[in-house]
Design a protein that fits this description.
The chain has about 400 residues and is α+β, with helices and mostly antiparallel strands. Helices cover about 40% and strands about 20% of the residues. Bound molecules: adenosine-5'-diphosphate and magnesium ion. The site of magnesium ion has 4 residues, from helix 3.
C-alpha cells in the first residue's frame, strides 16, 4: 500500500493515540462484544518462511479493536473509524468487495470461514473498527482485523474455536477470500503472542510455540516510509531465486536431502559453492544460515542469554544486506546508527525489506531521547522523516469488553 492510502488510516499522531488506551473505539451504545488484536513485528527469520524454515514474531501494543452488535435483520454493516466507506451486505449474499470497499473483505472472509466450520449466524450484525495500528506498514493490521473480527463473531454467536484454529482460519480467509497468499506467521503471532513471549512458527510443519521474551527489554520500530511498491517486485524475485537454487541443489544432492532450501546445512552449501551461480549461492546462504539463527535464538532466549541473542539480530541484518540483498541504504544506515548506541541489544531490517522498517531490541533503559538521535541523524543524512514507534509485546487477540 502506498503512502497516500496509508495516510487515510492514520488518525492523529502516534503521541495522540496512545497505545495504552483501554479502548480504541469511543462507542457509547451498548454492544454485544468488543474484541481487540495486536499488530506484530517479525523478530527474526527473514524470508525463511516460504523456504520451509523457522520464523519468530512479537506482538506489539498497537491494536485493532472491534465492537459487534447483533441486529434483528440479516444485514451485516461494517464501519471503520478509518477513512473508508461503510459496507453493508446481506448475510445470504456475502460477496467479495472491490475498490475502497475492499477493506471489508477481511471481515467478510472471516464470516465465510467461520460458517464453513459450522458457526451459525441466524441474524446479522453491526461491526465497528478502530485502530492504533499503522495500516499497510508490515505490522499486520490485516491479521489483527481478521482475528479481532473472528473472536468477536465467535463470542457473539456461541462459537468454540481455539486460538490456533482461529489463526489458521484467518490465514485461509486472507488467502482465499481477500486473495493475499500470506503465510501463517502474522495470524499465529496475533492470535497466540503475549506480553511475555514471542511466537515461533515452523513453516514446514506449521507447528507454533512460544519462546520467553526477556523481561526489561523493549522493541522499537523505525519506519522509513520508502516505497512499498518496490518491495513487491523484489519479494517475487527472491521467491523465484529461492526456488531456482532449491532446484539446483536438488539436482546436486537429490530430492530427499532438499525438501526445502533450509535443509541444506551451511557447511554442505559451502562445498557446492563453485557449482552454483554466485547470486543463487548467496541467496541460499542467507536462507540456510538465517533458519539456524532462529533456532539458535530460541535456545538463547530460553537460557536468558540476551547479549548473544541481540548479536544474532545484527548478524541477521548483515546476511539480508550482503547475501539476500533486500536491504537498502536507508535501512543499513538505521541499523548502523543503532549499533553505536548504548542499551541496544540488536537491530535488523524486519519484513520483506526493499524499504520498510528496522526493528531494534533494547534494554528498558534505552529511551525516546536516544531513538530521537537516530531520527535526527536520518533526517540529516536523507532529508526524510524516520517514524519511530516505541513498542512492548502485548496480549494476543481476545475479548476486551461488552
Ligand atoms: P498490513 O497487514 O501490513 O497492515 P495489508 O495490506 O496486509 O497490510 O493489510 C492492510 C489492509 O487491511 C488495509 O488496506 C485495509 O483493507 C485493512 N485494514 C487494516 N486496518 C483497518 C482498519 N482499521 N479499518 C479498515 N480496514 C483496515
Ligand atoms: Mg497484512
Amino acid at each position: 500500500m502506498g503512502q497516500s492510502s496509508e495516510k487515510r488510516f492514520n488518525r492523529g499522531s502516534a503521541e495522540e493515540r496512545s497505545p495504552d488506551i483501554a479502548s480504541v473505539l469511543e462507542i457509547e451504545d451498548p454492544v454485544d462484544v468488543r474484541a481487540s488484536a495486536p499488530g506484530r513485528v517479525e523478530f527474526i527469520g527473514n524470508h525463511t518462511d516460504y523456504n520451509g524454515g523457522w520464523v519468530m514474531g512479537a506482538t506489539i501494543d498497537r491494536r485493532v479493536e472491534v465492537a459487534l452488535r447483533r441486529q434483528s435483520d440479516r444485514q451485516v454493516r461494517l464501519r471503520s473509524e478509518a477513512d473508508v466507506p461503510t459496507v453493508e451486505v446481506d448475510l445470504n449474499r456475502i460477496e467479495r468487495q472491490s475498490g475502497t470497499e475492499g477493506w471489508a473483505n477481511y471481515v467478510l472472509g472471516m464470516i465465510n470461514v467461520l460458517r464453513s466450520e459450522g458457526l451459525e449466524l441466524p441474524v446479522g450484525f453491526e461491526l465497528r473498527v478502530g485502530s492504533t495500528l499503522p495500516v499497510g506498514a508490515g505490522l499486520s493490521s490485516s491479521a489483527a482485523l481478521e482475528l479481532a473480527s473472528g473472536v468477536a463473531m465467535s463470542e457473539a454467536y456461541g462459537g468454540k474455536f481455539e486460538l490456533g484454529e482461529l489463526a489458521r482460519l484467518a490465514q485461509r480467509a486472507e488467502n482465499e477470500f481477500v486473495g493475499v497468499p500470506c503465510g501463517l506467521l502474522d495470524q499465529a503471532v496475533v492470535a497466540l503472542g503475549g506480553a511475555d513471549r514471542l511466537v515461533r512458527l515452523d513453516a514446514r510443519t506449521e507447528e507454533i510455540d512460544s519462546v520467553p521474551f526477556p523481561p526489561e527489554t523493549k522493541i522499537w520500530i523505525f519506519r522509513t516510509h520508502q516505497a512499498h511498491a518496490l518491495s513487491e517486485g523484489g519479494y517475487q524475485e527472491r521467491h523465484d531465486e529461492s526456488r531456482a537454487v532449491r532446484e539446483e541443489l536438488r539436482s546436486l544432492l537429490g530430492m530427499k536431502e532438499v525438501e526445502h532450501l533450509v535443509d541444506v546445512p551451511p557447511a554442505r552449501l559451502e562445498q557446492l559453492r563453485e557449482q552454483l551461480p554466485e547470486t543463487l549461492y548467496r541467496r541460499a546462504r542467507h536462507v540456510t544460515t538465517e533458519h539456524r539463527r532462529v533456532q539458535r535464538m530460541v535456545q538463547l532466549l530460553e537460557a536468558g542469554e540476551r547479549e548473544e541473542a541481540g548479536t544474532l539480530l545484527f548478524e541477521s541484518h548483515a546476511s539480508s544486506r550482503a547475501d539476500y540483498e533486500n536491504s537498502t541504504e536507508a535501512l543499513d544506515f538505521v541499523v548502523d546508527q543503532l549499533r553505536e548506541q548504548g542499551g541496544v541489544l540488536g537491530a535488523r531490517l524486519t519484513g520483506a525489506g526493499f524499504g520498510g522498517a528496522v526493528m531494534a531490541w533494547t534494554r528498558t533503559g534505552y529511551g525516546k531521547a536516544q531513538a530521537q538521535e537516530v531520527v535526527q541523524a536520518y533526517a540529516e543524512r536523507f532529508g526524510a522523516e524516520l517514524e519511530m514507534l516505541a513498542c512492548q509485546p502485548a496480549p494476543g487477540v481476545g475479548v476486551v469488553g461488552r
